[in-house]
Recover the amino acids of this structure.
């Protein structure tokens, strides 16, 4: 009898036992009464939507796609995926200018980094913020991420590219929009560590945005186009025996899981070769293939924040285990809670208040801990936490790079 | 990844063995696919359903029962240690191994229990109560709590009841959807000012009632709401379990998990152990969905993956199996033997589970896997419902396997 096999959906929605555990852990349900919650928006609603699409509820737009519901579900129901797919299929809300602006992180980045000083000062000005609030409904309380005047890719071409090929091993770095336009230092930090342990860094010929912001703003066609292009690049890299690594949890998660689950693209052939930088490094250390040496004078007290997509990946142990190798670092663990930003979500005026309410318990714990730095592998969490707590946020890769004794590390790995 | 012990499943069993090992200074990781049966727990733990001395009743159980496997002395020793261990984690319980107490069920029955969370009233016997008049208080629109059944319970025992329904503006949005008016959703808003408001209402209404009963919708992430409310009402305030998910159950899970992490344990939630490498009768490593080819190595492993409900056992149309390793199990072959048409009759499937040796080590194809232990509801030859042994087996076997590893 094989009918049991054929009545199981890809998202396990018929496995739901209606226990409401998902709802316990949904950050939006906690603060926004208009949101129906994961059970209702996900498997419950899906039953109705399958019958008649008119049962679709536009309140599903409040879902952060954080996947914390999926992590908690005892029945392995892909609640977040069900909700995202329903939004794509049924939502009548058309992305407006604001959605396009927020979603096109790479296009905006190109523009903004070219005019960085102007953009950085203008988006800081009160009147400009008010104007954006009125016209675009981008909340005026929001601090905009700064744009760097020199992109990571430009720096790389000028200062790093030439020396890479000489190193014994090679990887491809998927820098993502953030490292490229907003915080090139993160990319530089990664290059510094990898080079010291004998890995040369290659960039893709034409990297596109991973597409997460386009997916969440319902720009599916554009997201699919970018995703296909990235997959081509990834396949090319894998064919050259180069694993692809990223410093952003969200880029990593999107390429590994959302390309297939949400965009329906086949990525199984390369999924395992797309990795988070800290996991890549941890594995090399664990397998004894590289050694890291740290500076004696490095001192830092940091608290680790687990971004939602890191929680879903289940990989925070790699970042924290790597950081625990640094002798001068005191590392505390924050409870795994959503910071509320969810990419572009918290930028929208109608979400701002919820975004801050979701993050409040986390912000309080950060304040209570009294640390120098919050460590976190996600760039949008960084904006949110820095804006809301005033505490500096660093990617674990940057912390490693600061603590690394480059000369000793090179010597340990026989790199000249 | 390398740990001294890896535990598969983060429910009551996995957490308690994890806590015991971490307390002994061991490097432990728990990998758990999703939240556990604790989220559905009444808030009472049962050792065995018995009027007399529970240990005497356990001594009479069949020789294949997990209690008999670990032995009466071990059951007693571990059971006695539990309240103090729970207290370390901030979980307050009352009860004793010497004698069961009674708790009040949501449908107005007195049911025997071994340990009960501080949220609930515990009764010395099933028939007489220490009160003459009690107040039963519910919230307008909340359907998962049944005052009528409780009325019955108290009337039978000669106790007067008064009823109150609180209508609170804060519930407005919850009332919009009947399916979302659930204990866990209510518990989320039960903080600060709302608690004071409820306390004020209660003080104004309870009159000469000696004690107040309310649905257990307070204190999901910690017990603060419970103590805050109690401190503002002059008579004792007790809760009655609601339909699941259970607010005190969720809290217990969170408190035990936090304590395990505080002891240095690593808790990986939302990941599925999908297989492992067994060589020369030893489990070398396990693979998980999230970690792919990064395998988890350990000296010892504990299988605490629960029963059918948690997918520790799977029933397909054709057969029943343990899905991770394909371990030897007790289960009838023919589907028709699995269950009894009469819901209240003995249900054979309840006794299915993995087979072990006398140290609770699992078996594969007839051979003992020397470093793979099993604990909790994944074990065969128990019937948590008929015997009233669910919590007791989960707890005592968990502490037993932890000791096997510590003393090895
Ligand atoms: C709905 C319900 C209500 C109950 N109420 C009570 C009660 O009120 N009082 C009482 O004494 N007993 C009760 N019981 C009995 C209960 O089984 C035990 O008390 C006890 O909670 C069992 O704990 P456990 O750790 O063995 O299993 P579980 O709590 O079932 O935990 C098993 C865990 O293993 C995880 N898991 C399974 N497979 C994998 C895998 N492949 N990889 C990773 N993780 C995996 C699951 O996700 C789950 O978290 C109840 C049981 C159920 C099902
Ligand atoms: S946690 Fe899973 S099984 Fe429970 S209601 Fe949510 S989707 Fe359904
Ligand atoms: S993905 Fe996050 S926001 Fe959306 S329903 Fe799940 S828990 Fe809630």
């Amino acid at each position: 009898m094989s009918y049991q096999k054929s009545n199981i959906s890809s998202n396990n929605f018929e496995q739901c036992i209606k226990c409401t555990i998902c709802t316990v852990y949904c950050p939006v349900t906690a603060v926004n009464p208009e949101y129906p919650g994961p059970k209702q928006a996900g498997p419950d609603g899906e039953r109705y939507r399958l019958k008649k699409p008119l049962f679709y509820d536009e309140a599903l737009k409040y879902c952060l796609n954080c996947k914390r519901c999926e992590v908690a579900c005892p029945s392995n129901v892909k609640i977040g995926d069900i909700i995202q797919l329903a939004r794509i299929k049924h939502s009548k809300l058309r992305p407006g200018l604001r959605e396009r602006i927020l979603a096109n992180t790479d296009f905006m980045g190109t523009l903004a980094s070219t005019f960085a000083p102007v953009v950085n000062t203008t988006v800081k000005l009160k009147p400009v913020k008010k104007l954006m609030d009125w016209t675009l409904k981008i909340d005026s309380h929001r601090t905009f991420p700064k744009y760097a005047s020199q992109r990571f890719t430009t720096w790389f071409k000028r200062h790093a590219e030439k020396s890479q090929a000489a190193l014994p091993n090679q990887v491809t770095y998927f820098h993502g929009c953030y490292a490229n336009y907003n915080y090139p230092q993160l990319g530089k930090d990664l290059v510094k560590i990898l080079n010291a342990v004998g890995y040369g860094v290659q960039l893709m010929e034409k990297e596109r945005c991973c597409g997460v912001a386009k997916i969440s703003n319902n720009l599916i066609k554009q997201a699919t186009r970018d995703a296909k292009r990235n997959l081509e690049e990834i396949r090319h890299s894998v064919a050259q025996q180069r694993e692809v690594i990223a410093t952003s949890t969200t880029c990593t998660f999107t390429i590994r899981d959302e390309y297939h689950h949400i965009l329906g693209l086949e990525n199984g052939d390369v999924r395992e070769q797309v990795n988070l930088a800290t996991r890549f490094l941890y594995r090399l250390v664990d397998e004894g293939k590289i050694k890291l040496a740290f500076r004696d004078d490095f001192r830092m007290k940091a608290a680790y924040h687990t971004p939602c997509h890191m929680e879903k990946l289940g990989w925070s142990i790699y970042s924290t285990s790597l950081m625990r190798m640094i002798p001068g670092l005191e590392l505390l663990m924050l409870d795994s809670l959503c910071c509320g930003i969810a990419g572009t979500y918290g930028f929208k005026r109608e979400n701002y208040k919820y975004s801050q309410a979701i993050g409040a318990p986390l912000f309080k714990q950060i304040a209570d801990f009294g640390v120098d730095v919050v460590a976190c592998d996600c760039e949008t969490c960084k904006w949110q936490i820095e804006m809301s707590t005033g505490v500096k946020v660093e990617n674990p890769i940057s912390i490693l790079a600061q603590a690394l004794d480059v000369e000793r590390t090179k010597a340990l790995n026989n790199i000249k | 990844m390398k740990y001294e012990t890896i535990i598969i499943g983060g429910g009551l069993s996995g957490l308690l063995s994890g806590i015991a090992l971490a307390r002994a200074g061991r490097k432990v990781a728990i990998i758990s696919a999703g939240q556990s049966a604790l989220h559905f727990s009444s808030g009472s733990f049962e050792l065995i359903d018995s009027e007399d001395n529970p240990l005497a009743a356990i001594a009479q159980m069949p020789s294949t029962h997990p209690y008999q496997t670990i032995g009466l002395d071990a059951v007693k020793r571990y059971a006695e240690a539990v309240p103090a261990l729970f207290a370390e984690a901030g979980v307050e319980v009352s009860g004793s191994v010497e004698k069961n107490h009674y708790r009040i069920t949501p449908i107005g029955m007195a049911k025997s229990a071994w340990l009960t969370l501080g949220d609930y009233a515990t009764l010395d016997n099933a028939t007489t109560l220490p009160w003459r008049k009690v107040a039963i208080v519910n919230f307008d629109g909340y359907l998962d709590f049944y005052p009528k059944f409780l009325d019955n319970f108290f009337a039978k025992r000669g106790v007067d009841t008064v009823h109150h329904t609180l209508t609170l503006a804060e519930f407005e949005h919850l009332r919009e959807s009947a399916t979302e008016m659930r204990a866990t959703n209510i518990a989320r808003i039960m903080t600060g000012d709302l608690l004071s408001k409820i306390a004020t209402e209660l003080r104004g209404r309870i009159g000469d009632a000696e004690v107040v009963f309310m649905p257990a919708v307070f204190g999901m992430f910690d017990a603060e709401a419970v103590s805050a409310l109690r401190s503002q009402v002059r008579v004792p305030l007790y809760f009655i379990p609601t339909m699941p998910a259970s607010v005190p159950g969720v809290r217990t899970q969170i408190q035990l998990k936090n304590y395990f992490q505080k002891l240095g344990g690593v808790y990986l939630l939302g990941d599925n152990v999908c297989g492992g490498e067994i060589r020369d009768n030893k489990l070398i490593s396990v693979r998980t969905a999230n970690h792919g080819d990064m395998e988890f190595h350990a000296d010892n492993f504990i299988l605490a993956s629960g029963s059918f409900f948690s997918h520790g056992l799977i029933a397909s149309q054709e057969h029943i199996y343990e899905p991770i390793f394909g371990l030897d199990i007790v289960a009838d072959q023919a589907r028709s033997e699995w269950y009894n048409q009469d819901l209240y009759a003995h249900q054979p499937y309840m006794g299915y589970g993995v087979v072990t040796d006398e140290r609770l080590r699992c078996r594969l194809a007839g051979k003992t896997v020397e470093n793979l232990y099993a604990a909790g509801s994944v074990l065969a030859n128990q019937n948590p419902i008929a015997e009233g042994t669910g919590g007791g087996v989960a707890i005592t076997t968990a502490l037993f396997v932890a000791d096997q590893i510590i003393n090895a």
About this structure: Chain B has two domains: 2-96+251-406, 121-240.
